[in-house]
Target: Succinylglutamate desuccinylase
Amino acid sequence: MTTEYKKVISILGHDIPLGTSKEINFNIAKLHTATKIEVPIIIERSKKPGPTILFTAGLHGDEINGVDIVRQLISRNINKPKRGTIICIPILNVFGFLNGSRSFPDGRDLNRSFPGSEDGSLASRVAYRLMHEIIPEVDLIIDFHTGGASRFNAAQIRIVENQPQLVELANVFGAPFVLYSKHIVKSFRNACFQLGKPVLLYEGGKSSFVDDNISKVGVEGVKRILAHFEMLNSKVKANPAKFKTVFVKKSKWIRAKQSGMFKAKVAINSKIKVGDILGQITDPYGKVHHTVKSNIEGYIINLNEAALVYQGDALFHVTKIIES
Model:
């Protein structure tokens, strides 16, 4: 984190001095009806200089649990810092949010379009403006995501290895799990890393669904991060984490050996042993009854909640090697 904090920052052509509250519309594009599509960016600057932290969600439009977390930061005035600057972008992919879709209207994944291009596809242009007109002013990004489709993620922070600062911040955040995961080419996290901007990626819940516990872990983690940087305003209290964070270096998927109707018998976050019964797969006619058993010891960090599965489908994501 930088120690030289700016008295005036520039976001999308707007100069914003210390002590300013401002909402800026990120003009993305127009619909076919010529209706403007704009993404609100909520900026709160204390009169006291300090770090600039960006909270983003909705990079995939159907991942609304993250949107709920950033919404709570705003509605509960957690985004009003004692010092420094807090920028909130609750929905990056407003097209997908409106349509309940992961992608942009051009069919592209915004999170595979970074760092973008000034004259490229729609998703690429949005990525380009974000990276050139917002990210340069930011010291830390916390980006909120969920599991895809029917796969429910345990609350977790994802970081790359060999980054002591990220390890420290992940511990401060206090999610139940931290996964070491490599950067994906053309992802938002990778593009920020290339600019020297640290990113904590929070995963929790599943797409098109809001889970109150996942939201609570996210909000409480944010409060601890703000308190760590002496940014949490005096009207908000940061509570200590209820559990010790487990750091995960490797994990393994347990997959369906048969197709059929699936029902899990264990809950997310559960610690399992080899031989434990995890679920059952049956057929609609009462002839097939297959028991899913664990062949690994660890914690369940992702659970497939689909009622119907095919042979080979991922059912349970289990930690393999952990660090305390």
Q: What stands out?
A: The mean pLDDT is 94. The first strand starts at residue 8 and ends at 11.
